[in-house]
Design a protein that fits this description.
The structure holds two protein chains of two kinds. Chain A has a two-stranded antiparallel ribbon with strand order 1-4. Chain A has one domain. In chain A, 73% of the residues lie in helices and 2% in strands. Chain A has 15 helices and four strands. Chain B is an alpha/beta fold. Chain B folds into two domains: 122 residues, P-loop containing nucleotide triphosphate hydrolases (Rossmann fold, 3-Layer(aba) Sandwich), CATH 3.40.50; 113 residues, P-loop containing nucleotide triphosphate hydrolases (Rossmann fold, 3-Layer(aba) Sandwich), CATH 3.40.50. Chain B is 35% helix and 24% strand. A six-stranded mixed β-sheet of chain B has the order 6-7-8-3-9-10, with helices on both faces. In chain B, α3 runs parallel beside α6, α5 packs across α6 and α7 runs parallel beside α8. Chain B is globular and about 55 Å long. Classes of the chains: A mainly alpha, B alpha/beta. Chains A and B meet through α1, α9, α10 and α11 of A and α2, α3 and α4 of B.
């Protein structure tokens, strides 16, 4: 059962992408750790961390593609799931600081001491264990997506209305997490992390390991999403996108179909967030900003929605561009991003990967037609030659 | 309310009695009653706004009636069920505008329509069995699309899309098929072929066809129900119905 699911998942493009990701997961840390800083092939640590961050963005965009590209659910709140996964990891990292905080409290993180709290809130228990935090990084976004999706899809909220309430969801979380008495560090969020699983979070080795973990997580998620969209369930997902009432009158429970994809997608976004936080060293309510979710939509659109690989390409390209652009012309980045979105919508409606695919298919068809024509011409010429 | 002989209910495949529904004060259906027998092919005609599509919406669970009874096979109360449940019970519906999955191939369209377990996890791990493959091939030949099986549904002609949708309904293996204007936009040759196809299908199940094309209905040669303003105006053979004074006034004459 699982093997046939995997066999279907592994198309040629997916195998190639997974191979690239796994190679990078091994090669980049090796080039960072094993070569001298003046070696021409040396990868500086800041580049490792920067691209590690891009890979978590790519995972977030891939997660969005599952629901937007294949099911037509334009979620404008996916950064919320990302941030929840990030907070789960952040809570673990806070607990790891222990007595090394500014106030030296062995149990309470600094912000709680500052707020004069005497004991750990109930929802902070368990986060001193990595496995528990890792589980929560997946379960918390999954649960939110389940509850939200259950009501939204059952009530048949569709299209722009659904997009608006996802936006409202992330905005509500933004406001909630800003409050000090929520117990998540308020405005400042969680930061000053010391170590993860006993390793110094700043060290070169840990940075490389986090990069490798992000690449592997992305590769694994790509295989899973590919398996999902290529299964019969995936075809139903596309059916819901293109003709929802038809799927319903064929006897499918559209709300269950949507809910499954939405929850899986939210969980992946949570994993992305959990990998993001140790690499950037901070998580604060700003991650819930509605604008963040909209940016994810832009990466996905630029790369090509509904292509799985496109969002990965889009997230890395746009964020790479952002890093370069904000260093050179910091004030103009948002204009550039807006302009990019308009240009892509107008001239590359299928995104980069979608357009390349279309071009390759056209060429193949052209060559096929040409070959067929030549064969016909040859067959017509044959009898005359025989005479 | 009981305008029908209630003894028709237990043996019928579809039983509507006194069904009324209104939208914003407009009475789309006004105490509509009729019975379809198992294995029957029935044509329903009527002017625009007579309530034909609303009637289908009620039978398939898209709309809830304000009053009246709708029973499937005499015992199942359809007013208490939603679209997916009703489809799984064995009622298939063809839309007025051909509605197929355009970005899937003809084959995939039929595969999705097959009457198999429709849960998320069973579809996630579904594998095409030899039995399912044979069934799809059989339907492909019934709807004359065998040589288009690998083409995207989007690339089919209008008439072929209509047939694909009929094929999808067959794959659903319904006991009752509701078909809304199957020959709208078809050429004469396609219309004649569709009549043959529907008669073939009606051999093994009950079919209700809503249609405007009187020639097509004459081709079908079945019992006709004429609706107007949300209730039954006349019922009988096509000659009987088209001779009815009220039908001429309301529908044919105009």
């Amino acid at each position: 059962m699982i093997t046939s699911f995997l066999a279907k998942a592994l198309g040629r493009n997916i195998v190639v992408t997974v191979a690239i990701l796994l190679t990078l997961a091994a090669l980049v840390p090796a080039l960072n750790l094993l070569t001298a800083p003046d070696h021409p092939l040396h990868v500086p640590t800041y580049i490792v961390s920067l691209f590690g961050k891009y890979l978590t963005y790519a995972l977030l965009a891939l997660a969005l593609d599952l629901v937007w590209g294949f099911c037509g659910i334009l979620s404008l709140g996916h950064a919320a799931f990302f941030a929840l996964g990030g907070y789960a990891m952040g809570m673990y990292l806070m607990r790891q600081i222990g007595a090394r905080g500014s106030y030296g409290n062995p149990l309470l993180p600094d912000f709680m001491v500052f707020l004069n709290w005497k004991e750990l809130p109930w929802f902070w228990h368990g986060f001193d264990m990595f496995w528990f935090a890792a589980l929560m990084a997946v379960l918390a976004p999954g649960l939110l997506a389940f509850v939200f999706g259950w009501f939204a899809f059952r009530s048949r909220v569709n299209g722009v209305y659904l997009s608006i309430i996802t936006q409202a969801m992330t905005f509500a979380l933004l406001l909630a997490f800003f409050r000090n008495d929520m117990g998540f560090g308020g405005n400042n969020g969680l930061t000053d992390f010391k170590d993860i699983l006993g390793f110094n979070i700043q060290s070169q080795g840990t940075r490389s390991a986090l990069f490798a973990a992000s690449a592997v997580a992305l590769a694994l998620s790509l295989v899973i999403t590919s398996g999902i969209v290529r299964s019969k369930y995936g075809k139903i997902l596309v059916g819901v996108r293109d003709a929802e009432s038809r799927t319903r009158f064929l006897g499918y429970r559209v709300e269950h179909v949507k809910l499954f994809a939405f929850v899986v997608s939210a969980m992946m976004a949570g994993v992305a967030g959990a990998l993001y936080v140790p690499q950037v060293g901070i998580i604060n309510p700003g991650e819930f900003d509605p604008a963040n979710s909209i940016e994810v939509v832009i990466w996905t659109a630029v790369g090509g929605r509904g292509t799985l690989i496109g969002p990965i390409v889009g997230a890395i390209l746009v964020n790479g561009g952002k890093s370069v652009f904000t260093a050179a012309f910091p004030e103009f980045w948002l204009f550039a991003l807006g302009g990019l979105f308009i240009l892509v919508t107008l001239f590359l409606p299928k995104g980069i990967v979608g357009t390349v695919r279309q071009f390759v298919e056209r060429r193949r068809e052209y060559h096929k037609a040409k070959a067929a024509e030549e064969a016909r011409a040859f067959a017509a010429a044959e009898p005359q030659a025989a005479e | 309310m009981n305008t029908l002989a209630s003894n028709a209910k237990p043996t019928s495949i579809l039983y509507l009695d006194g069904v009324s529904v209104s939208f914003d004060g407009f009475k789309a259906l006004n105490s509509l009653s009729f019975v379809i027998e198992p294995g029957e092919l029935r044509a329903i005609i009527g002017p625009n706004g007579a309530g034909k599509t609303t009637m289908m919406d009620i039978i398939t669970g898209k709309t809830r009636p304000d009053a009246g009874e709708v029973f499937f096979k005499g015992t199942v109360d359809l007013t208490q069920k939603d679209e997916a449940e009703i489809a799984q019970l064995g009622i298939g519906r063809k839309f007025q505008k051909p509605t197929v999955f355009e970005s899937h191939t003809v084959w995939d369209n039929l595969e999705l329509a097959l009457n198999r377990n429709r849960g998320v996890f069973s579809t996630l791990f579904y594998r095409l069995t030899a039995e399912d493959k044979a069934r799809i091939e059989e339907i492909l030949s019934t709807v004359r699309l065998t040589n288009r099986k690998d083409d995207l549904a989007a690339n089919l002609s209008h008439g072929q899309k209509q047939w694909l949708e009929i094929g999808m309904l067959l794959a659903q293996e319904p006991e009752l098929l509701l078909v809304d204007e199957p020959v709208a936009g078809m050429t004469d040759a396609e219309t004649a072929e569709t009549a043959i196809l529907l008669k073939e299908i009606a051999k093994t199940r009950s079919v209700v066809v809503v249609e405007h094309d009187m020639g097509f209905i004459r081709d079908l040669g079945v019992k006709v129900t004429c609706l107007a303003e949300g209730s039954v105006l006349a019922e009988g053979s096509i000659d009987f119905v088209s001779a009815d004074q009220k039908v001429i006034e309301n529908y044919l004459g105009r």
